[in-house]
Every structure is written in C-alpha cells, then in structure tokens.
Amino acid sequence: MAAKNIEVILKQDVEGLGHKYDIVRVRPGYAWNYLIPKGLADLATEGNKKHLEAHLRQIAHRLAQEKAAAQQLAEKLSQVKLHLKMPAGKEGKLFGAVTPQQIVSALAEQGYILDRRQVHFPTPIRALGSHVVEIRLHREIVITLQVEVSPLEE
Questions:
Q1: Which are the contacts of 128, defined by CB distance < 8 A and separation ≥ 6?
Q2: Whole-prediction pTM value?
C-alpha cells in the first residue's frame, strides 16, 4: 500500500522542491526523515498554515524590499563580465572545473557579495572560452553572467 503525500511548509529554499514559505506535497519518509529533522520544513497543519498567513502579512513589506534590492543588484550584475585565469592543457581543457566559489570570489573582488548557492552552471565549465553562468538573486530574479576563462600564464 503506497503512502499518501503530506504537506509541509518550507522554512528555507530547497533545491528542486521549492522556496521558503512554500507549501509543498512530499512523501512522508522524505518529510519525517529529512526535511523536518534538518529544520528545512514544518508539517502543514491548519494551525501552522494560519500562522504562516499571519507571518507573511507581517513580512510582506520586507519581502518586497528584498525583491527590489535583488532587482537593483541584477541590473548592476548584468553589466559585469568576469575573467578567470585557470590552469589548462594544450587542447584548451581545464585541469578540473570552475566552481561556484571561484565565481563568488571573482565577484567579491569587484564588490559584489553573493553566496555560492546562488551560482548555478547550466553545464559545467571544463574548457577555456566564453561561458554562461546563472545567478539566482531572488526566487523571481535569475540573471545570466558572461564568464571568460583564459589560460593561467606561467
């Protein structure tokens, strides 16, 4: 007999599942063994849903400010083009791959503070040349950033 899915309220963004404050349906084992013990979600009881609605009304202004700040940052970042120097072989293949932390560090040098979890690669960067990286600034604001990877001069 298959178990019915249960509803949970996410307490933070969960990759592939939803964003903070979303009410999502998941398998009971996933909820009870992973999401709830790790503090990522609460069970979506009627009381918790009412509490969430009241909480969202209280923080609506702050959420709007966060979105506006993310939009301003997106406008600034859309003008940025990153240049990374990486060790590479003769055929143009990198020794390893570009990591989200390297992107965050390069942006930090230019004065933009981001978290590595905001950086997503459509495809891993393992070769020299021009590549596109997604930056997720807000649940509704995702920009693409041009990254130029050149060989490390010896």
A1: 86, 88, 92, 93, 94, 149, 150, 151
A2: 0.71
- What domains can be seen in the chain, in order of their start residue? 6-65 (3.40.5.10), 74-151 (3.10.430.100)
The three-state (H, E, C) secondary structure of 128-143, written as one string: CEEEEEEEEEECCEEE
22-66 pLDDT, tens digit per residue, is 999 999 999 999 999 999 999 999 999 999 999 988 888 888 898
Measure the CA–CA gap between 141 and 144, rounded to whole angstroms: 10
Both tokens assigned to 68: 């506006």
Nearest to 8 by CA among 47, 54, 41: 41
CA distance 145 to 152: 21
How many CB atoms are closer than 10 A to CB 60?
A: 10
The pair of structure tokens assigned to 64 is: 């709007």
